[in-house]
Amino acid sequence: MNDDIPRLFALQERHNVFEDIIAGLYGAVLQPGDLAVDGGANRGLHSFPMAESVGPAGQVIAFEPIPWLAETLRIEGGKRGLPQLEIRQQALAAEAGRAAFHWIRNADGYSGLQPRDYPSEPDRELIEVETIRLDQLLGGVGRPFRFMKLDLEGGEFRAMQGAGQALAAHRPVIVFENARAGAARAYGYDAETYFGFFDGLGYRLRDLFGRPFTRAEWESPGLPWYFIATARPEDHALLDRAVPEILARVAGAARA
């Protein structure tokens, strides 16, 4: 696995292979009939294959607060015949209500509830969006909640706080963007609060390459911007097996 990591960083610049790794992860975890959440669905890169993985007996709930993207996802989901895919035009957060949302019109994937550093001059429009706590939606859900992907441009930790009860009850595998100190400054928390939350729920953290992530690595360089959280012993074991295989497969496919 270690031999693949430098290659994967280089390949990411040209082929965006981190998304392929994420796809490999939910491909390894999800089974027909499961429930999955896609927070920050954007154009459905992961929403649609996740819905195919859980099948008609399962459910994927995709959250996308930008109106035109949410409508596009609904239309495309209908065309693909995926009634198990539910699109919600809401932003995941720690509290329910209304909030200003920074829509970056020339790079909508960088949009979020708080401003961030942008790779180019943003064409920014503030829009009002509905925020929701995931616990509001998943209380008493019957099917197994097995996987959650969060790409919220810094808002991931606050969204997980809003899902604390569901995480404690179901202990899904979580793959999430993690800007670490930058996100903590923008969203008003610190490393102690962050790690205390995961410790309290019994979650183990690792980076996208499967390496342990602890308080000591909070400001370490050379980490990918996606991370993995697992709480079930069987999921620890699953990812111990699956992550090296996924990395090798993705690195090999990108080089081919």
TrEMBL record:
Residue ranges of domain Methyltransferase FkbM in the record: 38-178
Stored Pfam families: Methyltransf_21 (PF05050)
Entry keyword set: Methyltransferase, Transferase
Bilayer-crossing regions: none
Keyword presence, Transferase: yes
GO BP terms: methylation
Protein name: FkbM family methyltransferase
Species per Swiss-Prot/TrEMBL record: Siccirubricoccus soli
